[in-house]
Amino acid sequence: MLANSFVIILLSLAVGIPPLIFLFMALTSGQFDHVDAMADSIFEADEMRYFRPWENRKQAQQRLEQHGGLLNNPNREWERWL
Hints:
Helix content: 40-55%
Mean pLDDT: 80
Radius of gyration: 23 Å
Low-confidence stretches: none
Number of domains: 2
Number of strands: 0
Structural class: mainly alpha
Number of helices: 3
Shape: elongated
Strand content: under 5%
């Protein structure tokens, strides 16, 4: 029983320590410093100005201040998901 426990502990450390090392390397190199900017990077400039029916007033106001007035969504892309 002791040998099996020791093997399980070693395997757990071998599987669990490398992701922690990579996480701390990413943290120290600044990969997570600008998470909000990275979240917006997948959108085109006009997409940030489309009306989003799921937003509350505060979120819509913040987006209006950051990106300008709203545009009509020409393709109505989000209607199929609502």
